[in-house]
Design goal:
The complex is a heterodimer of chains A (793) and B (225).
Chain A: H1 2-15, H2 17-45, E1 57-66, E2 69-73, H3 80-88, E3 92-98, E4 102-108, E5 111-120, H4 124-127, E6 132-135, E7 145-149, H5 150-157, E8 166-169, E9 173-181, E10 195-198, H6 199-205, E11 222-227, H7 233-239, H8 250-253, E12 258-263, H9 264-267, E13 272-274, E14 277-280, H10 282-312, H11 316-324, H12 329-366, H13 377-402, H14 407-412, H15 422-454, E15 465-469, H16 472-476, H17 478-487, E16 491-497, E17 507-508, E18 511-513, E19 524-529, H18 533-537, E20 541-544, E21 557-561, H19 562-567, E22 577-580, E23 583-591, E24 607-610, E25 617-622, H20 628-642, E26 650-652, H21 653-659, H22 662-696, H23 698-706, H24 711-745, H25 756-783, H26 786-791
Parallel strand pairs in A: 5-10, 7-9, 19-24, 21-23
Antiparallel strand pairs in A: 1-2, 1-11, 1-12, 3-11, 4-5, 4-8, 6-9, 7-10, 8-9, 13-14, 15-25, 15-26, 16-25, 17-19, 18-22, 20-23, 21-24, 22-23
Chain B: E1 2-12, E2 17-28, E3 33-37, H1 44-51, E4 59-64, E5 67-68, H2 74-84, E6 85-88, H3 100-110, H4 115-128, H5 144-156, E7 162-166, H6 174-189, E8 193-197, H7 201-204, E9 209-214, E10 217-223
Parallel strand pairs in B: 3-8, 3-9, 6-7, 7-8
Antiparallel strand pairs in B: 1-2, 1-4, 4-5, 9-10
Helix pairs in contact in B: 3-4, 3-5, 4-5, 5-6
The chains are: A alpha+beta (793), B alpha/beta (225).
Chain lengths: 793, 225
């Protein structure tokens, strides 16, 4: 019996090759999308689980209140770990101080490379899961030691033993390799921890840290911890909340520092804080794409149901015969279920093939490294269970409806598929297009927002700007470098500054000015620069003047941006006095706001003053009259001259700037990808349905043609029904899309408004697609020879 | 074998009620070959469908093999049908996606006959209908006469006591038609009861008895033997 069912199902698939291809293909595309999204979500949700102490690892963070807004930061004073250990030691297994993870120059013999790594207290090897390949876990006990990740070890030592080799760190200190650990996987936050050196080493050549007058006054390191086995996160977190507040000065207390623990399980997906509240982060994307995935699958299922029910009506005769020769109704029901499940399982197999093909492309646009979970039983159980479920849902209508036919009627041909049978199908097609149109509008809005933020006035000229990290040597010789490069025409100007053009490396509080509310806590990005800063980046002086070498007193001068002047409520700011501690500075100029940080947020009130010691970054303006290659090679040659031991690395400011849009661009690309698939699936469904309708109306078309209808009139008649459905879909989709996208845009302070043309565009697009899809079938039907179509009766 | 009394059937639409069978009564004995004749719309096909338990009646009595079946539900009727009745239709009604062999095999599958036995029975009946060489073909690949022979084969494969034929030669030319009539006669000679609806006086002559109908009623009944 079952074999008979399969046989007939299989032959049905082969006989109707076109519609079977649409049916199975469409469903497979939908399943592939869901599989991709599912794998991506799985990857996101299992982030960091590589670490066995996942449930117990936390980062110590703090909220501080500036300008009435609670800011949240990972930066802590260097004494944080030690203090928590001393005061709340029993609640923790480890509390560890660490530096930022950034590029350091590592060298061994003649090999020099920049590699990212951190200074960490030694128990980090116990807290994190490090699979040791060489050496042991207590490799950080000695001060001058270093532990390397496998890939770093291979870069320097190949497959050879690395233990005991002496390397040089930042061209300053010798360190001995004491361990090599397996690279941390991509799906971990600390993935770029490519080497670890002891925290004590950091302290040893930053002796000022120990000598700090107010060790709680600066936040420049990170703190990680592992909770004790029986400690509860929330309890401990609220227990240590005032650990900083109790140590800071009067001034510091104004910022209301509140220390808390951020668990590892939230590092990746819930890293955003707004006004002191954890508001999500990437988890928003997980939701967004999860919902899109469900919708795409829904589209595919709708097609599947539509086409199988449309087609199954042609099989009424078979039902009649089977009943006449003795089939019971239940047997027919089983037969139809069997068939739809077979089709959905075929689609599942096809979807796996599709995923294998699409995955590399998907990984590129989603910037992920997901793989198919071949070995994971959950994947198979879900996949197969899901295919069967789809088959059952799609099979319900033919199974129950067709099996109810009276054999006499179907065999006589008396069954006319009623007007009402078409209504559910119309609803399904309409919802399908409503979903597609919503996605089209959504995608356009995402791109519009990116465009809007990219076109935001920068306040400086980013083209031709490069930044290069400073070193002791290059800092010492900045004048010589500048003169040489200007002399050989490689650059127009250069400067040295605290922060590059795309980030803020330093903020300061403690400023006072005329009319300031004494209780107002302030924190300004504060950038130390050379006199040539303005000329290099092309900022725009609005009032007063730029820094100049012609004024000896400029070492006590400040330039403010417009936001700072407004924030300080200074009516005539130039010439006013700014005080910090017991020192006074004069405001000499106001510059137009420059976009340094988030392109979606208002520019922060910022200050600029002349530098007093080595800062972090050189910024160079390349000579536009010279080719980039030529000027870059000249720049490199000059820098190498002063910096023999460290590789030359330069970043282009416009590229760094573009990275700010990475997340939104990724969302845009993924949304475009899914929108394309959704439209594709909808069109497949429409195409199948149009051909079915044309077929059903063959006789009508024949009669109309005999009576004199033109092809145009018939085409019009056959297409009109579908166009009406799509117009209804537009009416449903537009308000929904507006509502959703308006909500999305609220995330951005600096946001575009949704233009009316977007919906017009999306609707016209949907209508055009419909016309093209439907016309193919309707014109074919309309042009066919009426004799032929009348004979089919 | 069959005894119907005062059988009634109406078709209703919104505006009018059509009487298809109007208190029709007659009897059919085991082994008889009956032809039912009458103009279009006289109710003969309706009668056949009710006799084949494909359709309900709206009143009267229908005794099949001594059993009153008039109030049986779909399931019980399907059960009687598959064990006792074979159908031959004017338009053959073969399933396009199944081969000749599989079409003939279908009733055996539904009555739960074992596979080996099925194969033997189908082969026997195909031999008998002289269509064995075409067993792997699909219906569209056969001529009308061949298709009808397959349909007859399917009707008799289960050894039914009753064969109901609805204008079995209606779609065939005269030589193919005669062939089918010969087949039915032979089956009748082997013991099957046959009730055949026909427009053809020629075909009716093969039967033992002709029942003529008009407006849902029996008008005459004349025996040919």
């Amino acid at each position: 019996m079952l074999r008979n069912y399969f046989k007939i199902a299989w032959r049905n698939i082969l006989v109707n090759k076109g519609s079977s291809a649409i049916n199975i293909g469409g469903l497979a595309v939908g399943m592939a999308v869901v599989m991709l999204i599912g794998l991506w979500i799985y990857n996101e949700l299992s982030f960091n689980k590589y670490h066995q102490n996942y449930d117990k690892i936390v980062q110590v963070m703090q909220h501080q209140t500036y300008n009435d807004v609670v800011g949240t930061q990972v930066a802590n004073p260097a004494v944080m770990a030690e203090t928590i250990r001393n005061e709340y030691g029993s609640d923790f297994k480890y509390v560890l101080q660490a530096s930022w993870n950034y590029d350091h120059a590592l060298s061994y013999k003649d090999k020099v490379f920049f590699k990212p790594g951190s200074y960490f207290e030694p128990e980090v090897t116990e807290m994190l899961t490090l699979n040791m390949l060489q050496g042991s876990r207590d490799g950080l006990k000695e001060m001058n030691s270093i532990m390397l990740s496998q890939s770093v070890a291979e870069v320097f030592f190949g497959k050879e033993n690395a233990i005991g080799e002496i390397m040089k760190l930042d061209d300053k200190v010798d360190v001995k390799v004491t361990g090599v650990y397996e690279d941390l996987p991509d799906a971990t936050t600390l993935q770029s921890l490519e080497f670890i050196v002891p925290w004590d080493l950091y302290l040893s050549y930053n002796s000022w840290i120990k000598d700090m007058e107010d060790p709680w006054g600066s936040n420049f390191t990170q703190t990680f911890a592992q909770l004790g086995d029986n400690s509860i996160l929330e309890t401990v977190s609220s227990k240590i909340k005032d650990v900083k507040l109790s140590k800071v000065t009067e001034e510091g207390r104004r910022y209301k520092p509140e220390v808390f623990l951020h668990p590892m399980s939230k590092w990746h997906l819930q890293s955003n804080f707004e006004n002191g509240i954890n508001t999500g982060g990437r988890i928003d994307n997980v939701w967004l794409f999860g919902i899109i995935g469900v919708f795409v699958l829904l589209l595919a299922c709708i097609n599947f149901m539509n086409l199988s029910t449309a087609r199954s009506e042609k099989r009424a005769k078979e039902v009649g015969i089977r009943k006449a020769v003795g089939s019971r109704r239940i047997q027919l029901i089983m037969q139809f279920f069997n068939e739809s499940i077979l089709i959905s399982c075929l689609a599942f197999i096809l979807s796996i093939l599709l995923v294998i093909i699409i995955l590399p492309f998907f990984n590129t646009i989603a910037d992920s490294k997901i793989t198919i979970l071949w070995a994971n039983p959950i994947f198979w159980v879900l996949g197969i269970g899901f295919s069967v479920l789809t088959g059952i849902i799609a099979g319900v209508y033919p199974a129950l409806y067709l099996s109810s036919f009276k054999p006499v009627k179907v065999l006589k041909g008396a069954i006319r598929i009623g007007r009402y049978a078409a209504i559910p199908r119309k609803i399904l097609v309409t919802s399908q297009f409503a979903i597609s149109i919503t996605l089209i509008i959504g995608t356009i809005v995402v791109y519009q927002q990116i465009q809007y933020a990219q076109n935001r006035p920068l306040g400086y000229e980013k083209n031709g700007l490069i930044s290069i990290n400073t070193t002791e040597e290059t800092h010492k010789h900045i004048e010589a470098i500048r003169t040489t490069l200007k002399g050989n025409g490689a650059i127009v100007e250069m400067t040295e500054t605290t922060s590059p053009m795309t980030a803020v490396y330093n903020t300061n509080g403690g400023f006072d000015w005329e009319g300031k509310d004494p209780n107002l806590p302030v924190d300004f990005p504060n950038n130390a620069v050379t006199e040539e800063y303005g000329k290099t980046i092309g900022w725009k002086i609005k009032k007063g003047r730029d820094f100049s070498r012609d004024f000896g007193a400029d070492s006590l001068a400040y330039i403010l941006n417009e936001s700072a002047a407004t924030f300080m409520n200074l009516k005539d700011p130039v010439g006013k006095i700014l005080r910090r501690g017991d020192r006074s500075f004069t405001i000499i100029g106001i510059v137009e706001d420059m976009l340094i940080q988030s392109p979606y947020k208002p520019v922060r009130p910022s200050l600029f003053h002349l530098l007093r010691r080595q800062e972090n970054t050189f910024i160079l303006k390349l000579n536009p009259a010279m080719s980039v290659n030529e000027s870059m090679s000249k720049v490199e040659a000059v820098f190498k001259n002063y910096n023999t031991s460290i590789p030359f690395v330069a970043n282009f400011v416009d590229e760094e700037f573009d990275k700010k849009f990475g997340n939104e661009k990724k969302i845009g690309q993924l949304a475009a990808f899914f929108t394309f698939l959704a439209i594709f699936i909808s069109c497949l469904g429409l195409f199948g349905l149009a051909s079915y309708v044309a077929e059903q109306r063959t006789k009508e078309i024949g009669i109309r043609k005999v009576l004199g209808a033109t092809v145009i009139k018939l085409w019009n008649m056959l297409s009109k029904d579908f166009l009406i459905l799509v117009i209804i879909a537009c009416a449903i989709a537009i308000p929904i899309a507006y509502y959703i996208m308006d909500g999305w845009l609220q995330k951005f302070d600096y946001r575009t408004s949704i233009s009316w043309w977007i919906s017009i565009f999306a609707c016209i697009g949907a209508l055009l697609i419909t016309i093209v899809t439907v016309s193919f079938q309707s014109i074919k039907a309309a042009r066919s020879n009426p004799i032929k179509s009348l004979k089919t009766e | 074998m069959i005894k119907i009394k005062d059988l009634e059937k109406y078709y209703k639409t919104e505006e009018l009620q059509t009487i298809a069978l109007n208190k029709l009564s007659f009897e059919v004995k085991q082994g008889e070959f009956i032809a039912v004749m009458g103009p279009s719309g006289c109710g003969k096909s309706t009668l056949l469908n009710i006799l084949g338990m494909l359709d309900d009646s709206d009143g009267g009595s229908f005794i099949f093999n001594g059993e009153e079946v008039i109030n049986y539900n779909e399931r019980k009727r399907a059960n009687i049908r598959k064990h006792n009745i074979g159908f031959v239709f004017q338009s053959f009604n073969l399933i396009d996606q199944l081969t000749v062999f599989e079409n003939v095999e279908l009733p055996l599958i539904y009555t739960g006959v074992k596979k080996a036995e099925r194969k033997k029975k189908v082969h026997d009946v195909l031999e008998k209908m002289q269509i064995m060489h075409r067993r792997k073909h699909f219906p569209q690949q056969l001529s009308g006469g061949q298709q009808q022979r397959v349909a007859v084969a399917r009707a008799v494969v289960n050894d039914p006591k009753l064969i109901l034929a609805d204008e079995p030669t209606g779609n065939l030319d005269s030589s193919n038609g005669n062939e089918v009539m010969e087949l039915l006669t032979e089956l009748n000679n082997q013991g099957a009861t046959i009730i055949m609806v026909t427009h053809s006086e020629h075909d009716a002559k093969y039967s033992h008895r002709i029942i003529r109908m008009l407006d849902g009623q029996k008008v005459t009944e004349n025996s040919l033997i």
